[in-house]
Design a protein that fits this description.
binds guanosine-5'-triphosphate; alpha+beta; 22% helix; Elongation Factor Tu (Ef-tu), domain 3; binds magnesium ion; 12-stranded mixed beta sheet; 15 helices
Length: 626
């Protein structure tokens, strides 16, 4: 029912208009179920591109990191024309860490296209995003995608989706939704898995038929909820959102209603609607349109842009709180400033403040535990934080971060920690491995079912603490055959400590360059991050010990030339190639007394205190204060 949407809720006396020529639809799903691929093909088939083959793949994933990782990070708007009707599409990320992108953008839509992988079926994030959409009163349309997969089981998946709706629907009308089948990658859809049209025609028609046109108060005072921000070098900040009520006209006097109250009235400088992948300037926009507004330098996500005469604010979208945090510090390593901008704490703060304007799931505060110039940066998961760190270093910044840790809460004197629902699928032969790995992480098996063609599906409840590092460990132990997905469920009383998963560090005792001689000596008892010639500094962690204790080691040691000719036996020692962890892997490796140094070119693990003396002193102080 459209009127259940809090945003579309009309004033009692308002006359409602149906915008027959308009549809606003959000595309939602679990990660990788094919949203962006589908949106791409909808764009191509609506002739946004004159040459449909010219645009390439996943054009909506326009950010560099999105392309590299093959995932959507930011929700994005696009618009297509289907005959007389304009369809505004909102592509959303499916990874749980970017849930705030879904939370801030769904209110622009009247309907949602729920994609479900024909083999995987509904997964944790399917439930989360469908729950959000149904709560907002969006009309759902289900697309069972990837029916070309060999392990596709569309009939079962449709049943599982039906169960999910029964659980999540807010009114009976939401239970009658159309189901279509698709191969998004080939741009085809149809009413049955074996009756796909050569194109997405059936999907276009279903959208027009089942997604309600916006039903709006077109004559009331203008009200626009800001859901996204963009920057334009000439125009500055651009606010994007749905015009919920009334009309906007270029030159009209408007006010921005921020979290601290209304800003002074200004004239509306420029107004745009979406067209294809771009924006088109317009003189007037009507209620129901998704628009972009330029000329409000301090507008923020969640603000209302309103008619200056009747400044009424809309409710701000609810954003779930972060669960994971780390400390971000200026880079104090001896190599600071060698290949990036060594920035001060103030410059870091400026950059983080800018990030907060658009990254609505993020929180930043000065760090309080003696880390001078540091900031505690909190997000929705390790990936959310990793994407931010990677973005900063690509901008040329240098900095250091501490180990990511979960955010604890205290309620009525009890310490609470976040818990997740974790779904793991593995081939039967790796079941034992999974049990071994999740056991010490305090996972409780809630459900286990055979997963057609792929072994077993295990559903656990687990503290978020236990999840850190689990994905990497599982992938290694099952040779990449396991899939792990999770979603935050709730806060519950804190469990006992989880034993440390990592071995001790090999700590460089001197500054210099790693030598083949030293590496050859160390490699039997350690897994090294460095190769001969890698510059190292005292206190840098150059590898992992095969035991639990830290191992100080002079990795820069030259062979003493006692003899002029070196023996051929020694030259023949084969050096193992170094293990160079990725950023995500490093984040899982950092120990409590360590920092990760990030520069545009290098990632280096280091001890917080670089010399053995300082470390001893710090350990003594920590010991005496307990
Ligand atoms: N076999 C098959 N693969 C598909 C189909 N549609 C998409 N894929 C593949 O599935 C993968 C994920 O597709 P995306 O479109 O990036 O998925 P997404 O839902 O946008 O992912 P996130 O935005 O990261 O949540 C890509 O490798 C696609 O090529 C399909 O119909 N069949
Ligand atoms: Mg995507």
């Amino acid at each position: 029912m459209l009127t259940t949407s809090p945003l579309a809720a009309p004033q009692p006396a308002a006359v409602l208009t149906r915008r027959e020529q308009l549809r606003n639809i959000a595309v939602i799903a679990h990660v990788d179920h094919g949203k962006t691929t589908l949106v791409d093909h909808l764009l191509k088939q609506s002739k946004v591109f004159r040459d449909p083959t010219a645009a390439g793949e996943l054009i909506m994933d326009s950010n560099e990191l999105e392309r590299e990782r093959g995932i959507t990070v930011f929700a994005k708007n696009a618009a297509i024309q289907a005959g007389e009707v304009k369809i505004n599409l909102i592509d959303t990320p499916g990874h749980a860490d970017f849930s705030s992108e879904v939370e801030r953008t769904l209110s622009m839509a009247d309907g949602c296209l729920l994609l479900v992988d024909a083999a995987e079926g509904p997964l944790p994030q399917t439930r989360f995003v469908l729950g959000l959409a149904l709560k907002l009163g969006l009309r759902p349309l289900v697309v069972v995608n990837k029916v070309d997969r060999k392990d596709a089981r569309p009939a079962e998946v449709v049943e599982e989706v039906a169960d999910l709706f029964l659980e999540l629907a807010h009114d009976p009308e939401q239970l009658s939704y159309p189901v279509l089948y698709a191969i998004a990658r080939e741009g085809r859809a149809g009413p049955a898995p074996d009756q796909l049209a050569p194109d997405l025609g059936p999907l276009f028609r279903a959208i027009l038929q089942h997604v309600p046109p916006p039903l709006v108060d077109a004559t009331g005072p203008a009200q626009l909820l800001v859901c996204a921000l963009d920057y334009d070098p000439h125009r500055g900040r651009i606010a994007i959102g749905r015009l919920v009520r009334g009309r906007l006209q270029r030159g009209q006097t408007i006010r921005c209603l921020g979290i601290d109250g209304p800003a002074p009235p200004v004239r509306l400088a420029e107004l745009f609607v979406f067209q294809g992948l771009g924006r088109q300037p317009v003189e007037v926009a009507e209620a129901g349109d998704i628009v972009a507004v330029a000329g409000l330098p301090s507008v923020a996500i969640g603000d209302t842009i309103a008619d200056a005469g009747t400044p009424e604010a809309l409710p701000r979208p609810a954003i779930t709180e972060p669960t994971v945090q780390l400390t971000l510090l200026p880079n104090t390593s001896p190599f600071a400033g060698q290949d990036g901008k060594a920035v001060t704490s103030r410059q870091l703060k400026e950059r983080l403040d800018r990030e907060l304007e658009t990254n609505v799931g993020l929180r930043v505060r000065p760090s309080e535990n003696g880390e001078v110039g540091g900031f505690v940066v909190a997000g929705r998961g390790e990936l959310h934080l990793a994407i931010l760190l990677e973005t900063l270093r690509r901008e040329g910044l240098e900095f250091a971060v501490s180990r990511p840790e979960v955010i604890l809460k205290r309620e009525a004197g009890r310490l609470l920690e976040p818990f997740e629902e974790v779904v793991i699928t593995v081939p039967q032969e790796h079941l034992g491995t999974v049990t071994e790995l999740v056991g010490p992480r305090q996972a409780i098996l809630e459900h286990m079912s055979p997963d057609e063609g792929r072994g077993a599906r295990l559903i656990y409840r687990m503290p978020t603490r236990g999840l850190i590092g689990l994905r990497g460990a599982l992938l290694t132990a099952t040779r990449g055959t396991a899939t792990v997905t999770s979603r935050f469920v709730d806060y519950a009383p804190m469990g006992p400590p989880i034993p440390r998963q990592r071995n001790g560090a090999v700590i460089a005792t001197e500054t210099g360059t790693a030598t083949a001689y030293a590496i050859a000596n160390a490699q039997e008892r350690a897994r090294l991050f460095v190769a001969p010639g890698t510059p190292v500094y005292e206190g840098m962690v150059v590898g992992l010990n095969s035991r639990e204790n830290d191992l100080p080691f002079n990795i820069a040691k030259e062979k003493k030339l006692t003899n002029v000719r070196s023996s051929t036996a020694e030259i023949a020692v084969k050096l193992e190639p170094p293990f160079i962890p990725s950023l995500d892997q490093y984040l899982e490796l950092i120990a409590d007394d360590e920092l990760l140094e990030l520069t545009p070119k290098h990632l280096r693990l280091r001890k917080r205190y670089l010399t053995a003396n300082e470390r001893e002193k710090a350990a003594r102080i920590a010991g005496s204060s307990q």
